[in-house]
Amino acid sequence: MSAGNEHFSIRTYGRRKGHALSPRRTRLLEELLPRLKLDLSAAPPAPLTSLFAPGLFAPGVSQVWLEIGFGAGEHLAWQAQTHPDAGIIGCEPFINGVAALLGEIDERNIGNIRIWDDDARDVLDWLEDASIDRMFVLYPDPWPKTRHHKRRLISPRTLKILARVMKRGAELRIGSDITDYVRATLEAVFATPDFEWLAERAEDWRTRPPDWPQTRYEKKAVQEGRKGHCLIFRRI
After folding, report:
1. Is 119 a catalytic site residue?
2. Which is it for strands 166-176 and 229-235: parallel, antiparallel or unpaired?
3. Which residues of the chain fall short of a pLDDT of 70?
């Protein structure tokens, strides 16, 4: 664990498992996941360089990205295929989502993804300072009830932890279809000096970036009449 990095005190995710898995996905969890799962006893990606821990990613990877809560993994898989020079770490405690991503990796023969099928806090503690080039937090659990707001992932405190592991100039992308969560996210960002909201500098910030594909959750939200918000921040 890096010095000065404290755990979040409250769990920010919900259930760990849903419906029964198919035999294929069960097999992938048993056979493929152990080969792709992060070994947190090994050295983490080296900070401020393109030289990464031996065996973490294949040669040719020049940057490391991190997605917290990848859901079914369709966004992560798309990014990995589109950006083969990026090694992407995905954190997701929901085992059905992990199994879905493994299915994509197996079918498409994707080689630049590593997985942590548990609490993202473990990975954040493991990572060295300034070692992540891009971070994704897409459609985190909104915990809509007021008494549960303390469980929301994005807060001034957690942004400080994310800032620690991100390089200067690295992008933080946050997506949500809950207006209250978007407002709370912006308030949290404005409360910390570590990030700037790129919407304040870009005239066309309302235009969806071409390398930000919709997830199935976002598509469902749009079908149900909710607008997906794409927020991009820069580590400063």
Report:
1. no
2. antiparallel
3. 1-18, 47-55, 143-149, 151, 200-207
- The model's pTM: 0.86
Name the active-site residue from 39, 122, 141, 211: 141
Dist CA 152 CA 13 (whole Å)? 8
Residue 230 in domain: yes
Tell me the CATH number at 216: 3.40.50.150
| Domain count within the chain | 1
Q: Which of 105, 80, 81 is nearest to 24 (CA)?
A: 105
Distance CA 65, CA 89 (A): 6
- Per-chain mean pLDDT for the chain: 85
Residue 82 lies in a domain: yes
Q: What residues contact residue 22 under an 8 Å CB cut-off, 6+ apart?
A: none
Q: What's the domain range around 122? A: 24-235
Residue 111 maps to a domain: yes
Would 194 be classed as within a structural domain?
yes
DSSP letter for each residue of 48-99: TSS---TTTS-TT--EEEEEE--TTSHHHHHHHHH-TTEEEEEE---HHHHH
Encoded tokens for 144: 């809509």
